[in-house]
Design a protein that fits this description.
This protein is an alpha/beta fold. The protein contains 24 helices and 22 strands.
């Protein structure tokens, strides 16, 4: 047996070469779990009542933020009657969930998992839904459970609130640190200066010719020369969720002056799973008589737009991907009015602060696509008319911060308002339904709460023992195992050489392969993915004591979690989180896995070689 080391600029990606077993069909990606085995109709109805997960909303290698993780946990606790559905995955039949258990492997990262992929046998085989997590924050638990700091937002002193709005004398001093001024300067700019560059469009995932997954996208044929006098068109689209992901259900196009030149309902080709009515305003009744298809809208839009048309929208990349169209001249108001560290403000917020208008009102059924398109157009026109300096003086960052503080301080304690607030923590959701959270850990510096039963243990072994006893007693449990970050301390010379290598390339490990494999064909395959710096065929490997230690640790804890998992009751939503680590060389991203325990799963411990 042999292995191949490839040095490549590409991001490492693991590929499985296993063939599907005979007699069984390969399961479609994104399908809900648990999978219903072949059987009679008599058990089909009972299976429809089981809670199950579907990852249809997020693609391969998708990064899930901490706030999105909170969305799922809050929905698992309260259900759709109280909180919005998660934006990145589906939890079907939530009311049939029995428990939620989160296992946190503190000190472990995504890199460690894939480095010892075979040793994590149970995790890789059982948990089919995997997702990336961002690099670890200062308080990982606070982020995923939504815990507020000791000083709640409502307890901030007035002096702090006053500093959110600096005096006019300070504004001129701090103006140079404003990201809008840094990008556009203080003087007024023309329309062409506000267009996104090709590099920016690539960075923010706009559909471009030659980009992945854009092979069948239609060009708008707008290839004229754009000037500061070119026409602006506000665009907004609404989507629904189908068996193939998000698809277009409505498009609205507004010309300068606010006149709507196009407003079409669109019927998707695939089966609709969720109309997303709370956002789109589209219902089954509204869409039933519609015969317009995506190709009709694409053709109409190509006819309407002049060669030098500039499209304006808010997160316009999403709209263009829903349209499956490529357009080279765009202004994205979420990037035009950008905040510090790339913060992107919501359209509703910008409309209120800059234009003084209320949109997306809660008493309306969904968003008004024409209103949203018109608002983005007016925001672009405001920027062009008054210039970056006036926009910077509005101090959007401070306004948003103060608004969040006031909202948190004045938030009514009625449960409906509490649930809908995005800052509401999982703990508060549990408290509202009279339930407590169990938190098992060996760390001494973690949070505490009246609504949280915290059990501090002396070791991981004690955490494991307590988990077997305590988890059945609580509806929501967090079990945290702590490990020393896996790193080494190299010499200064080694550090420099490693930094140079890491900047120039990444390494892909492929194999093992059989001895009679065709190396020429293998090299051609890998070269097709992109430029390869070098290839090395390795016939034997040497493991240091540290590597052997990590290998045994990965295997042992995979088996321990396996035993814990099989002790859970059926219908338990189980999440495994590897938060990532920080070191002198930077941060390592985390990894998440999730699954709902099925009652048909039996205790079959894996064997670790």
């Amino acid at each position: 047996m042999s292995s191949l080391f490839l040095h490549s600029p590409m991001e490492p990606e693991e590929t499985a070469g296993r063939q599907p077993k005979k007699g069984k069909k390969r399961r479609r990606a994104g399908a809900a779990e648990p999978v219903t085995p072949s059987g009679g109709l008599e058990d089909g109805q009972s299976r429809a009542k089981k809670a199950c997960l579907s990852a249809i909303l997020y693609g391969e290698n998708c990064e899930v933020t901490y706030s999105q993780l909170c969305e799922l946990l809050k929905y698992a606790v309260l259900g759709k009657s109280h909180v919005p559905k998660p934006s990145w995955c589906q939890l079907l039949h939530q009311n049939h969930l029995n428990k939620v258990v989160v296992f946190i492997l503190k000190g472990m990262s995504q890199l460690l998992f894939y480095r010892f992929y075979l040793e994590f046998g149970f995790l890789r085989k059982t948990f089919k839904h995997k997702f990336h997590l961002p690099p670890p924050s200062l308080n990982f638990l606070s982020d995923i459970i939504g815990m507020q700091n000791k000083k709640a937002a409502g307890d901030w002193p007035m002096a702090t609130q006053e500093t959110l709005f600096p005096a006019s004398s300070k504004v001129s001093i701090n103006l140079q640190n404003n990201p809008i001024i840094q990008k556009y300067g203080c003087k007024k700019v023309g329309l062409t200066r506000c267009l996104l560059t090709k590099e920016e469009m690539k960075t923010f995932h706009f559909p471009l010719q030659g980009s992945p997954n854009c092979e069948n996208f239609i060009l708008t044929k707008c290839n004229g020369s754009v000037t500061d006098c070119s026409p602006l068109f506000g665009l907004d689209c609404e989507m629904c969720l189908t068996s193939k992901g998000r698809e277009l259900t409505r498009i609205s196009l507004v010309a300068e002056g606010g006149y709507c030149v196009m407003d079409e309902l669109v019927k998707p080709d695939d089966k609709i799973l969720d109309y997303l009515t709370s956002f789109s305003g589209i219902t089954k009744k509204i869409l039933h008589p519609v015969t317009t298809k995506l190709k009709d809208v694409q053709a109409h839009l190509k006819e309407l737009l002049p060669p030098d048309a500039v499209l304006v929208g808010h997160s316009l990349d999403v709209d263009l991907r829903a349209l499956k169209m490529i357009h080279p001249y765009v202004i994205d108001t979420s990037l035009l009015y950008v905040g510090k560290q790339g913060r992107r403000f919501k359209l509703k917020f910008l409309a209120k602060v800059i234009l003084g208008k209320d949109i997306q009102c809660p008493n309306m059924l969904g968003h008004d696509a024409i209103e949203d398109a018109r608002t983005t157009l007016e925001l672009a026109q405001y920027f062009l008319k008054y210039g970056p300096k006036k926009v910077a003086k509005l101090n959007l960052e401070a306004v948003a911060c103060l608004q969040e503080v006031k909202t948190a301080a004045q938030q009514p304690r009625n449960m409906t308002g509490l649930f809908q607030h995005p800052k509401t923590s999982v703990l508060e959701c549990l408290e509202s339904v009279g339930q407590k959270l169990l938190f098992l850990t060996q760390d001494n510096n973690e949070f505490s709460s009246q609504n949280c039963r915290t059990i501090k243990c002396l070791s991981n072994k004690e955490v494991l023992e307590q988990a077997r006893v305590e988890i059945p007693l609580f509806p929501f449990s967090i079990v945290q195992f702590s490990f020393d970050p896996f790193s080494f301390i190299p010499s200064e010379d080694t550090k420099k050489r490693m930094m140079i290598k890491w900047m120039e390339m990444s390494t892909v490990y492929a194999g093992p392969f059989s001895k009679n494999c065709n190396l020429v064909v293998l090299k051609k395959i890998f070269h097709s993915f992109g430029p390869v710096h070098s290839m090395t065929l390795v016939f034997e490997t040497h493991r240091t004591p540290e590597v052997n230690h990590l290998k045994r640790l990965a295997c042992r804890w995979s088996r321990k979690i396996e035993k814990l998992y099989y002790s859970l009751s059926p219908g338990t939503l189980c999440l495994i989180l590897l938060p990532g680590t920080k070191s002198a060389f930077g941060s390592l991203s985390g990894l998440g896995m999730m699954k709902i325990k099925d009652e048909e799963e039996c205790d079959t411990p894996s064997i670790c070689e």
